[in-house]
Amino acid sequence: MKISTTFNLENFSLVYIDSTQFLFFHSKVYQANYTAEALIMDSGVLSHYPELKTLWDENNLSIGVFSKTIDRHYVLTPGDRLEIYRPLIADPKLKREKKAKPSRKWHRAKTGRKFENEPEF
Q1: Which residues lie closer than 8 Å to 115 by C-beta, 6 or more apart?
Q2: Phi and psi at residue 41, in whole multiples of 5°?
Q3: For 15, how many CA atoms within 13 A lie in the half-sphere containing its CB?
């Protein structure tokens, strides 16, 4: 009697870019029905980045597959790229508003007049 020992193996990858723009990339062949949690634990990314370990322990680590947020128990499908997202440091909306607001010098140079309630120096 011949016993079949075939395994259904799939390729999954994990990507994380730290604050210095260094890329952590882990790609390996695993058995099917692999979860996001198992891939993160096996990749070693938590030992390389202690700040991620803290977020992981507090259940505050944001992860996703191809830019769609998932939870840690999500079962990966073949070819999935698991992404770890860093927490936002600044509010993007406030950053855009600040960037779009013209400076006083620019306004005076372009229009020849001052802003309302601009202090005299």
Answers
A1: 104, 107
A2: -65, -40
A3: 10
DSSP code string of 31-63: ESS-BHHHHHHHHTHHHH-HHHHHHHHTT--EE
In angstroms, what CA-CA distances link 1 with 4, 5, 7, 105? Answer: 10, 13, 19, 87
pLDDT at 3 over 70: no
Q: What is the CATH number of domain 9-88?
A: 3.10.20.90
Contact between 34 and 76 under an 8 Å Cβ cutoff? The reply is yes
| Three-class DSSP category at 95 | helix
> Taking the model in full, what pTM does it have?
0.65
For the record, the structure tokens of 59 come out as: 């259940």
